[in-house]
Amino acid sequence: MSIIIEHNPSSIKLSDLGVMSWPKWSCQPGKYALVFEETETCYLVKGKVKVYPKGSSEFVEFGAGDLVTIPKGLSCTWDVSLFIDKHYKFDPPTSL
Question: pTM for the whole thing?
């Protein structure tokens, strides 16, 4: 279960994905415990964060200009060092 980061995707790719029409979410610097119930794709407009998967001392870092895919089922702590402003979307739930 890994986070996928694409640094500085092209404006064409962002447009094709419709990123600027996705909802926005923001948060102040601090630590946040999060659980992703669905796969999330997000584009960071501002900010910087280190993500620590639950039970691990390893982290993944990403920030402004990154297109990120966070897998369904990930429990983690976000250690936000710079104010986060992002567009995001969740993949639709899959039926069993």
Answer: 0.91
Residue by residue, DSSP assigns 40-88 as: EEEEEEEEEEEEEETT-S--EEEETTEEEEE-TT-EEEEEEEEEEEEEE
Report d(CA 76, CA 38) in Å as an integer.
14
Cα-based distances in Å from 31 to 4, 83, 93: 21, 12, 27
Phi, psi at 17, each rounded to 5°: -75, -20
Determine the 3-state secondary structure of 12 from DSSP.
helix
Task: Supply the CATH classification number for the domain 4-90.
Answer: 2.60.120.10
Q: Identify the pLDDT of residue 11.
A: 96
